[in-house]
Specification:
By secondary structure, the protein is mainly alpha-helical. The protein has one domain. It contains 3 helices and no strands.
Length: 92
């Protein structure tokens, strides 16, 4: 269990950051801007990497890579889903 703690923490904090970003962008698109998700998501990597450093310092790199990967893949999935919905609306 110890070797994968960096990956688990990276996935958890990456997903939280992705959720907060999506929430903030949706609030912006509905013209009801909420500032707190933008502020909180900025600190997610710091807290995730800090917790990883406290638990097992050797897992900092896998934790950082996993956070970045979750954000990139999550953004791509959201983009593709949005584009598919838009093309489906245009066909109707």
């Amino acid at each position: 269990m110890r070797p994968v703690i960096g990956v688990i923490l990276g996935m958890a904090f990456g997903l939280v950051q992705l959720f907060l970003l999506i929430y903030a962008v949706r609030s912006l698109s509905t013209q009801r801007l909420k500032i707190w998700p933008f502020a909180v998501q900025f600190f997610c990597p710091f807290f995730g990497l800090g917790l990883c450093a406290l638990l097992q310092t050797s897992q900092l790199l896998p934790c950082a890579v996993t956070i970045s990967t979750v954000l990139i893949v999550g953004a791509m999935v959201c983009f593709v889903r949005y584009r598919l919905r838009e093309t489906k609306r245009k066909k109707d």
